[in-house]
Design a protein that fits this description.
about 170 residues; mainly beta; five-stranded antiparallel sheet
Length: about 170
């Protein structure tokens, strides 16, 4: 059976076209503003961060504590049950040492990005954050860490209200 799909070859721009500027270029400048509803669970989570608190949601079906909190349990297909205030510490589940910025430029000093399993949450419930006050070669999986918060007046209800997690200082 022969194909009836037409083949469109298009018009290739050659180096000669570029050199002679035989092309049309249009630039748009847009300005978009929008509002986003955080929802109940994320709203309380962010409000908690502003107060220097980390909140999770308990599911009585699977007995897990979800961090970040969700109003619906994806394992049980049911509404989660109650709020649980968690500690602002945890342990490193995994981490990555990066010498590259988000715009792909090179960093002089690396950043250490880690998944932190928050104490009081269920195993493997964690948040992605930065590690600080530790050399990359000293970081270990399972290392106990604690949150370093912005000062109260600088907190705005965002995950960046935690500046980073640092190795936990023994009490
Ligand atoms: Zn559940």
């Amino acid at each position: 059976m022969s194909s009836k799909i037409a083949k469109y070859e298009g018009t290739e721009i050659t180096p000669e076209d570029l050199r002679r500027e035989r092309y049309l270029m249009t630039t748009y400048h847009t300005s978009l503003s929008y509002a986003w509803s955080s929802g109940v669970a994320t709203g309380k989570y962010l409000a908690g961060l502003k107060e220097g608190e980390i909140w999770g949601r308990r599911c009585n079906g699977c007995e897990r504590t979800l961090v970040p909190p969700r109003m619906y349990c994806e394992q049980c297909f049911r509404a989660t049950s109650s709020w649980v205030r968690l500690e602002d510490r945890g342990k490193v589940v995994t981490y990555s040492v990066s010498y590259v910025n988000s715009d792909a430029s090179r960093r002089d000093q690396p950043i250490i990005v880690a998944v932190i399993e928050i104490a009081g949450g269920s195993p493997m419930m964690g948040i992605l954050h930065l590690l600080g006050e530790v050399a990359p070669e000293k970081v270990r999986v399972s290392m106990e860490v604690e949150a370093v918060w912005k000062s109260q007046q600088d907190r705005e209800g965002a995950i960046t209200d935690i500046v980073y997690f640092r190795p936990r200082r023994k009490e």
